[in-house]
UniProtKB/TrEMBL annotation:
It comes from the Eukaryota. The lineage of its organism: Eukaryota, Metazoa, Chordata, Craniata, Vertebrata. GO terms for biological process: DNA damage response. Residues 223-728 form the Serine/threonine-protein phosphatase 4 regulatory subunit 3-like central domain. Belongs to the SMEK family. This is Serine/threonine-protein phosphatase 4 regulatory subunit 3B. Residues 839-849 have a biased composition (Acidic residues). It comes from Camelus dromedarius (Dromedary). Residues 817-835 have a biased composition (Polar residues).
């Protein structure tokens, strides 16, 4: 019998067990790869079932048909002819590998037991049942490679059938689609399979162990392009394709065809070569890149990439690389290997940019080996340059030479910028060695010279080099600045030059100023400053900075905010000229950058910035910026004040209260009106923080001065909460004062009474011993004595007008009484007993009291 191939009769199986290669241009190039290694001229298969089971099967089918007719079930119209379809059956194992179940013949059959159409496969050797699978409505089936159907059983077990004849595969596929109500033109009946499942499908056995590519001929370019494109669909195919391309000089022959197609002006062939070379690059194999990117072939590869099929006219990549892209040796390079490596790196980078014209994560991953190739080349270039000390030393010498012309200086700066960019690819140890070498060769003095030039391109490139150095080690930069400050007493310092470049940036968007501000913040960050037993970098550098640099940083702030304190209202304002200056966008953006840096200093520099703010009255100047029409500048000023309050430092709080510096904030809130925007939220958050943290001094100041103005704001409870806290604190202070007076009175009175009783008791005992017992005073007389004592005490307090302090140490405070001479003498004999007020005539009063008391009768 004849076996059918691709639905075309009369094409017998060849002796090799695979279909003969009579594919047309539109046939899938890999269709023959998945034909199983069936034997020549397969024998006539046995009957579908043993003879004794055939009547039973037929009877069952007839019974099922009658049952469906009675139940009104419409049976799907499926061709049930006894067509023999030779297949191999595979099942996925627990190890995610495909195990072969056997070779047999498939026939779709309606099974009454399964109540539906099923796929039955019987072994060609003994007629045993290999597969019995019902076609379920919800099971996703997928048709691949024209002769493969894949699906999953109910227990999540992968199944696959490989057909000998693609036409048979399509017939079975139509039956499956009819059952599920799908269009046979689709390749997947349900949701797509996962990527892992796709890869597992690619691991199914194939007839050829290695992919074979046709000979490199013009007539075979289309077939080669199709094979290369199809070879990118799975990792296994990529490996096989790369193995073929590495052998037999296949790439060399392809690039020879490129010249032939160009000479013949064969546009179609050039388009095929574009797809072939791009596909080879997508294989992501370093061994292939070594061939493609060699000096012999790299320009031919670029030429192939010019002829993109989607473009009407080819691009001119080779013309750009050979004519427009000029290699300039700023310093002569005598090493031929180094020069060749630089050329190769530039061209490979250009090829990478062609392939990844629209950046995406997918493309970057696809060409990751090219990126690695470029990376390794850059490492080699930097290493070669680093080993040549004379080369780098000559470059820095030319930069420092004032006689060097501007063009030469620009090229030198561009070269060192690219050199530092390449250095980022080095390992930490090699990178550390390189930057130490650059510092020793004098890169920082050279940068100071080039940053002072007026050429914007040179300034920008020098700033990038400075950024690389700061990123590597801020301590090296700070050390150079400190050494320079010790040698020079004037203000012409490198860091002042950086501040000047930031302030004088001419870019309307201040791109350079933003970059320099970030570098300054990195230099001022105390967390990357070193501290050793012999040196504290933090204190030394910050002392130097606030003494010799900070005034340069705040020059725009001081010049823009001219202070105008109105005598009538005692508020902070600004004159009209400065107000117009505040409304300039570029000026406002620069001031915002300065405020951001000052806010950073408030957070990290503690007392350095604190006393600078007090000395310059800096917060008052900053709050003038709240008159600007730019909301972002107002928020920067507010954030500066908020950071000060967030430190909860009473010195800052006292400074704010004394200067009445909440007034501009309250005015900004009132001017904002009912708009619910960021400014409104920022001001409310400021007062809410004061309330939550219960900063008592600020709470009292806000309530006493601004509550009447803010009490109408009821959409938040912040100001009412401040009022409640203020009242609670006030009541608590009153209660404390009452308690203090009570404790003080009880301490004084009780102590005087006890002293009096003790002295009288002692006198009484002495009188008994001497036999001088007199009559005790009457009760009324004793009451008169007490009244006189109380009146004398009140009179004394009114005359002295002594104000008790808020905090009194009661242990050291004692009062004396004039009721008896013994208490007076006791005060004189006891030096720890003191009076509230020391009068000059105390001694005379004491003598009079002593005389009067002696005249009183004793008991």
């Amino acid at each position: 019998m004849e076996a059918r191939s691709s639905g075309t009769p009369g094409e017998p199986w060849d002796s090799g067990g695979t279909l003969r290669n009579h594919q047309g241009p539109d046939d899938h190039p890999f269709s023959s790869m998945f034909c199983c290694d069936f034997p020549d001229q397969p024998p006539r298969p046995p009957s579908l079932a043993p003879q004794r089971w055939r009547p039973l099967i037929q009877g069952t089918q007839e019974a099922g048909t009658r049952a469906e007719a009675r139940a009104g079930v419409k049976r799907p119209e499926v061709a049930m002819a006894d067509k023999r379809r030779r297949v191999k059956v595979y099942m996925m194992s627990d190890d995610q590998l495909w195990d072969e179940l056997g070779t047999g013949y498939l026939l779709p059959t309606y099974e009454e037991r399964l109540r539906g159409l099923s796929l039955l496969v019987q072994s060609e050797s003994d007629g045993s049942l290999i597969l019995e699978s019902k076609i379920n409505l919800n099971t996703p089936y997928q048709r691949k490679r024209e002769n493969l159907i894949i699906w999953y059983e109910a227990e999540n077990r992968g199944m696959a059938i490989i057909f000998q004849d693609p036409a048979s595969c399509y017939e079975i596929w139509k039956d499956i689609c009819k059952v599920q109500g799908k269009d046979p033109s689709v390749e997947i009946t349900e949701d797509l399979l996962d990527e892992s499942e796709e890869e597992q499908c690619d691991d199914l056995p194939e007839t050829s162990e290695q992919l074979g590519l046709p000979n490199c001929e013009l007539s075979k370019l289309e077939q080669i392009a199709a094979l290369v494109t199809a070879g990118l669909t799975s990792p296994l195919r990529k490996e096989r394709l790369a193995l073929v391309l590495e052998n037999e000089n296949y790439i060399k022959k392809l690039l020879q065809l490129f010249h032939t197609c160009e000479n013949l002006e064969d546009t179609q062939g050039l388009h095929y070569l574009h797809d072939i070379i791009k596909g080879i690059l997508c294989l992501n194999k370093k061994s292939l890149f070594e061939i493609l990117f060699s000096d012999e072939y790299i320009m031919d590869v670029v030429g192939c990439l010019e002829h993109e099929p989607t473009l009407a006219q080819p691009r001119r990549h080779r013309e750009f690389l050979t004519q427009n892209a000029k290699f300039k040796e700023v310093i002569p390079i005598t090493n031929c290997e180094l020069r060749q490596k630089i050329h190769q790196t530039y061209r490979v980078q250009y090829i990478h940019d062609i392939l990844v014209s629209k950046p995406s994560v997918f493309k970057e991953n696809l060409f990751s080996t090219i990126t690695t190739f470029i990376f390794l080349n850059k490492v080699e270039i930097v290493s070669m340059l680093q080993e040549n000390d004379k080369f780098l030393a000559e470059g820095f010498a030319q930069l420092r030479d004032k006689t060097t012309d501007i063009d030469k200086r620009r090229e030198l700066v561009f070269f060192f910028k690219e050199f530092c960019a390449f250095s980022q690819t080095l390992q930490p140890q090699s990178k550390d060695t390189l930057f130490k070498t650059l510092t020793q060769l004098g890169i920082l003095p050279a940068l100071k010279i080039v940053m002072a030039t007026d050429d914007l391109q040179i300034k920008s490139a020098a700033t990038d080099i400075f950024a690389y150095l700061v990123e590597y080690s801020p301590s090296i930069i700070r050390g150079f600045i400190m050494e320079e400050a010790q040698q020079s007493e004037d203000g012409n310092l490198f860091i002042n030059l950086v501040i000047e470049q930031m302030i004088c940036d001419t870019d309307p968007e201040l791109g350079g100023a933003i970059h320099l501000m970030e570098l300054l913040r990195e230099l001022l960050d105390p967390y990357n400053m070193l501290a050793t037993p012999t040196k504290c970098e933090r204190s030394e550098f910050l002392n130097f900075f606030y003494k010799r640099c900070m005034h340069n940083l705040i020059v725009p702030l001081l010049s823009t905010t001219s202070e105008d304190v109105c005598e009538e209202d005692n508020i902070v304002g600004a004159d009209q000229n400065n107000k117009n200056h505040l409304n300039n966008y570029q000026t406002a953006q620069l001031l915002a950058l300065i405020l951001e840096l000052l806010t950073f200093c408030v957070q990290h520099h503690t007392y350095y910035i604190k006393y600078y703010i007090f000395r310059k009255d800096l917060l008052r100047r900053v709050l003038i910026l709240m008159n600007s029409k730019h909301t972002f500048l107002i928020l920067c000023a507010l954030r500066f004040m908020r950071r000060m309050i967030g430190l909860k430092d009473e010195l800052y709080n006292h400074y704010i209260i004394k200067g009445n510096l909440f007034e501009p904030v309250v005015n900004a809130l009132l001017d904002n009106g009912t708009r619910y925007n960021m400014l409104n939220s920022a001001v409310i958050e400021l007062f809410e923080y004061i309330r939550v943290e219960n900063i008592k001094s600020l709470v009292a100041h806000v309530v006493e001065n601004f509550y009447k103005t803010l009490e109408s704001i009821e959409y938040v409870q912040t100001f009412k909460g401040l009022k409640i806290q203020y009242e609670q604190e006030k009541d608590q202070q009153i209660q404390i004062q009452k308690t203090l007076h009570s404790i003080l009175y009880s301490k004084v009175f009780c102590r005087d009474s006890s002293v009096l009783e003790e002295k009288e008791e002692m006198n009484f005992k002495e009188n008994i011993e001497e036999g001088e017992a007199d009559m005790p005073p009457l009760e009324g007389e004793f009451q008169d004595c007490c009244d006189k004592f109380t009146e004398a005490k009140k009179t004394k307090e009114n005359e002295d007008k002594v104000d008790l302090p808020k905090r009194i140490s009661f242990g050291d405070l004692k009062f004396t009484s004039s009721h008896s001479a013994d208490t007076a003498s006791s005060r004189a004999s006891n030096p720890s007993t003191i009076s509230l007020v020391d009068y000059s005539d105390d001694e005379e009063e004491d003598k009079e009291d002593e005389t009067s008391l002696r005249k009183r009768p004793r008991l």
